[in-house]
Amino acid sequence: MSDANLDAVERALGALEIETPSWGYGDSGTRFATFVQPGRPRDVFERVDDAAEVHRLTGTAPAVALHFPWDAVEHLGALRDHVAAAGLRVGAVNPNLFQDPDYRLGSIAHPDERIRAKAVEHLLECVEIATALGSSAQSLWFADGTNYPGQDDLRARRGRLLAALEQVYAALPDEQELLVEYKLFEPAFYATDLADWGSALVVCQRLGERARVLVDLGHHAQGTNVEQIVAILAEEGRLGGFHFNNRKYADDDLIVGSVNPFELFLLFCELAAAGGPLPRLTIDQAHNVEPKVEAMVLSVVNLQEAYAKALLVDRAALAEAQEQGDVLAGHEVLLDAFRTDVRPHCASVRARLGAAGDPVAALRESGYADRRAGERVGR
Ligand code: RM4
Ligand code: MN
Ligand code: MN
Q: Atom 5 (ligand 1): residue with closest C-alpha?
């Protein structure tokens, strides 16, 4: 590759921006146990501090996505100031409609009108929170669904869901977008109301231009070709963004790129192919046994490397092979890029951004985890 091309790759890589999730720094567990880690943040302010550390080390994580009411505070102004002082900005606002006991049978698709109204009220409150925090997106995921055939009417549920989202969309200020996430199953085990990208896409098309689909890598059936979904959504102008994580079995929320780095590379190939600005790229992971800040740093590094490899794809050679109908030549063009050791490029880009050459090693050497463990006691 010529120096000029390499320069373009490094410039694009330097512009990569990842949102890390406040909920990825706090306590999380499985339904069997939650192992509380020493030094884990006790409130949203400390979660933001951890996000700032990840950005300091990687140079690529300038935004922190928030989840309400998990991140609720008395004074939003204080939170906004804290985020800015930490050198970050607020990413997407994520409403939470899955923990209140009222939501046993769903939230915006609940059969009881009063529960639906309560859910919509929370969504509208989150629009106001986003405005106050300078956030430009509502990122919606609904646990709504049913466990048994006949439990509720599938079409009626869809109608209720659409009616609620129409109310929220109407209240959305111009500078905010609505991201609609889908998930195959869990917590509902028979029918999830927004189970796949097609259902989410139709809802977005019904709502309006600023409604787009969010793809969470853990939310598909085994073997689903996620990069093809990304290609279709991008072509339709409805690719809102990602929740990055990795899975082996279901919605495992492991470190992105840890189980299937080739899939991650192919996703970034689709993003790089589109040429335009990247959609919103957010990490959505649960670090149950691994050290949380280190897990997040490694996740951002994995994303940098996957994107770097995608940028290295020889697009002209790929197009040529495809035009010739040469089945394996195109495949080998991709493999060439995938097999390149991009670690030196990524390190040099991070150095240029004032971040760490080797962020994981730098984190370990800095003693950040021990320092936080000493400070964050009690509560
Ligand atoms: C869901 C989904 C959502 C996240 C919750 C906590 O499985 O991925 O994005 O907000 O988990
Ligand atoms: Mn998600
Ligand atoms: Mn999930």
A: 141
